[in-house]
Structures are given as C-alpha cells and as structure tokens.
Amino acid sequence: MPVNEPLLELRGLDTDIALRRGAVHALDGVSLQVLPGETLGVVGESGSGKTMTALSVMGLLPHGGRVTGGEILFEGRDLRTLPPDDVRRIRGVRMGMVFQDPLTSLNPTMRIGTQVAEPLRVHFGTGKAEARERAIDMLRRVGMPRPDRIADNYPHELSGGMRQRVAIAMALICSPRLLIADEPTTALDVTTQRQILELIDDLRAEFGMAVILVTHDLGVIAGRADRVAVMYAGRVVETAVTSSLFRSPKHRYTEALLESLPEEARGERLYSIPGLPPDLSQPMTGCRFAPRCRHVTDACRLSEIPLSGAEHQFACIHPASGRAAAGVPLPSPARSFSDAPVLSVRDLVKNYPVRRGGGQVSAVAGVSFDVAPGETFGLVGESGCGKSTVGRLAVGLERPSAGQIVLEGTDIAALTGRERRRMHREVQLMFQDSYAAMNPRMRVDAILAEPLEIQKVGDRRARIATLLDQVGLSRQVLERYPHEFSGGQLQRIGLARALALHPRLIVGDEPVSALDVSIQAQVLNLMRDLQKDLGLAYVFISHDLSVVDYMADRIGVMYLGKLVEVGPARDVVRSARHPYTQALIDAVPTISTAKRERIAIEGELPSAIDPPSGCRFRTRCPRAAALCETEPPLTGDTHQVACHFPLRQPPPATSAA
To answer: How far apart are CA 423 and CA 555, in angstroms?
Structure first.
C-alpha cells in the first residue's frame, strides 16, 4: 500500500444502538482517515461518539448496536462487505485495541502469559511453548519488569500500570498495522500515564503501525498526536494537524473545551460549558452544539453544518479567530489564614499487617499538616503514595497506628463510636466514584435525607431543598435513582450529601479525576463558590497537579507514605524544590508545545512493605547520592522540602542510589 494512501478510512459511518423504545443514533456520518505510521487523536466529551467509533471499527459494539451506513475501509477493503471469517482475521491480526480499564478487559482466571499468547494460538496455531516464549518477549518489549515471572501471575496481582502494559502486549502480539487505544491512561496517575504514552510512541516507531488515540484529555493529544479529530454528539466537528488546532481552534466547541482546562485559567474562574450534550435518540436540526454555544445565531439552527476547509476542516458558521498565546498562569495573590486550624494532623502513622509472610505495609509514615478554616490543602502524589489513606483517616473511617488527628480541638483517634458519629457533623468525604458511593436502590431524596435522619436533624425537606439550590440541581432529581444521572450530576449529588450536616471540613478524594474537562470545570467552580459562601475548608486529594494548582492554597506532595514537600500552591508548582515534585509537574500532559528539559521518574513505586532506607525516593531519583541513605527531614519556613539536594542547588558530584 502506498504511504500516502489511508490505512483506515471511514466514509459516512452511521451506528445505531437499539433500545426498547427507539434507537440511539450514536454516530451520524462520521468520516475519518488514518495514514500508515500516523497517530490520530480523537477527543470529545463523554457521549460524543469517540469510543463508539473505535468499537464500530473493531466490530465490538454493545448489545443492540450495529453499523447502519457508510464504509469502513481498511487497507482498501470495506470491512462491511467482506465475509465474516475474513473480517475476524483482519480484526484479530491486523488491528489491535487497548481498552480503558485493563482489569475488566483481562480474564481474572487466566495467567498473564496465557492471555498474551492466546491470539497467537487462535489465529496462527502457534504451539504452547513457542507462544509462551513470544508472549514473554512481548512483555519484555513493553517494559514489563521480570516478564518471565509476571507471565505466571494473575491480573489482580499487578498494579494498574502493569496491567495496562499487559493489555498493550496482547494488542501487539500479532504485529498489527493499526492500534486503537481507547482512554488507555484515564485511570492512571500522571507518572504511569506518561510511561504508557511514551511506550505507545516507542512501539509505534518500532512496529511502523498507525495509532488512533481516543481520549477526553486534550493535553495527552497535544503531546502525542499528529492530527486531531474533535467529536460532538456523534459527528466530527473539527479536524486538523495538532499544532494548528491547538494554536487556532475554529469550532466553538473546541474553543470551549480548551478554555475549560485548569492550565488555561490564569488565576481566573474556569470556563464551564453550560448544559449537557443532546439526546441522540431524538431528531436534531442545525448545529448540535447550538444550545450550549455562546455565539449561536438563528442561522446555526436552520440546517446541519458540514465540514468545510482543506487541511483544517470545521463545521461552524461563526468560527473562532484563534486562541490567545498560552503563558505562565497568573494566580491570585496567596491568601493568609491566621485562625486556629480546623484540622491538625501530627506525626500520623498507618500500618497494615501482612497476613502472609508477616511484616506490615507502611501506608502513612509520620505525616503532619494543618488546614485553616476556609483553606484548601492539596494532597498530591502517585497511586500508592498514601494520600487516600490520609483522607480516610482524617474523616474517621480508619484509626491511625500512631499520631494525632485533631478536628476542632478534639483528637478523633481517641473517640468512641457514638462520639465519632457526632464528629461526622464536622467532616465529610467526597468520593472519586459517586455512583459506587451511593445505594443504587435508593432515590436521591432518600440518599440526601439519610445523614439528616442518622443525626436526627429536623425540617429535612427544607434542608434538602437548600442543598439542591446550593449545588445547582432541580427538585426533579429527588424522584430519580443514581443510574439515571451523568457523572457530573452524580458528583453534585455527592457534594450535596457531604454538605447536609453543615461540615467545617470536606475531604475530596480524587473528586474530579473521572470527569470530562467541561464537567470537571463545573464541579471545581462549584466547590470554590461553596467554599467562599460557606467558609468550608477542603483537603483536596489528586494526582493531577494542574487541578490542585487551580484549587489549593497550599500543597503537600506525598511519596511512599511521607510528605516530601509542603508550601504555597504557586511556589510548589512554579518553584518546586524536591525532584519528585518536579517530576510530577513534568508528567502532567499540557496543551503547551514548549520544549524543555524534564525530570522523568523511571520504574515502579517500591514496595511499602519494605520501603527504601533514608529518602524513600532515592531509588528512582536522578540526583541521588550516598547521603540520601539517611532520611532528610522537612526543612524550611512556609515552603518546606525533605531533600538533601533540593532543586535550585547543584546536584551531588557523584550519584549512587
């Protein structure tokens, strides 16, 4: 096939999902092409059709789904007209797919090596021994440590990053020409995310394959894709070379997505796209983004607007003129907090016993910080660093092994059951997955009333009405069940429940990490508004420093159970002193294309059962030396760092971890 001929081309693709009453028109006339060796980024909110496009190509549509029109041309042949056996072989050998959640896409009853080798045995009849050797070799090529041992493990025994590497190995074992990666890093922390994205880049170069990268994270696309297609409500609304699209977006939807990013706030309120995407089961006329667009006119509602243009195509009759050049954000002046802390954590320790083999997991090791009334304290770090454990301890869901958690002058670690229940009036928790945190059999009115009933609060109807007003929900939601809401609406309900008892402190454990950028902006703005109106204090837990930078007054950076840097948010983010903090900042994908030297974290997080002596980061630190085998204390005044060789100082003459 000539290099300039598309490897994959979609022409007018239509896909429907049959329901009991009617059908959802998930894709409507989608046309895309991917050249050999190219990475195409496909972006948009949930429900925009990006995953449905990938599943249509792979023939993996959900029950009731079918392609109703258009062509799927792969290597010049229309997959819709080929015999089923030919299609299965093409999709099993010439195409590979990596899914968002590797744990649910892997068979929990099969060993890793068997699963990776399975495509070879099914499609090529490869012998068991040879298939295993090739599987181990592929695991090695995707950067899996000790692949011969990992091959005998089960999926639940691996970390999220390692499971994603297994999924990539399975997709590549037959040397496909096309790899479709559907949100491959959404559930991963920023350092693991960076490793996976760099791995996909390296493998693309090694195998000469094309990649379709499906994601709602615009920063991921900016740094990885050659071209971008922006989807909205089942249609492609803009497509261009990556640099052109981010420098000068044309469709007003693309412009709005970019303005919703925390890195674009520059100290101001995030732009939040009003409303929700349209119901795709209903007929529509005109521009589908018109009901949510700031620049809509009557002409936008008359008829469907087709893509126009040559290299940069867009479907908008009032295109944007371009985006202001991105610069260093200009945050508001740092706020000062002189009141007594609402929460004071001192020398907090949490160890978990290991049932097999003895020993213990050092989840939290001597953490101390304060949170003042009206302040947001951001807690960041990789998965497994202990930040969520600190959150559970702070709200009294677990008891510490040592140390104090003083809430409003009372050490909650020493409270009895009844006293702890009363304490929950003062502190509440927002969960990452609001749906999993709610009883699916309870309506919203019962969910919001439950804490009021437990604490024997009177006039519950009036309190619930006030809560709905505060989080921007109508009274109609009270009659509905959790599964009937979007992710953003669920998070608003979760926030309303957290506010029910007038708490002084709310701990948010990754409260926006699973949300689209536009819905994320709505929730972050809402949390800041409520903080201002009600004087709330927040402990905001996240692995995304750009989000924490927008929300927090101060930031604490955790690594393997310890705080390694604490300071004002703007100082920590713009003048990081610990190498680990700088590596976290460098790992956050941004839409800026500026090139600079970056600190990269290599390898997996060490085991918390047997953490490294001295500085726990030394085994992964590029500046480590012999002195790092002794533990550095947190030093400094308002900006503290636990490092023998902090940044802005020359590195040690000799390195030795």
So the answer is: 25
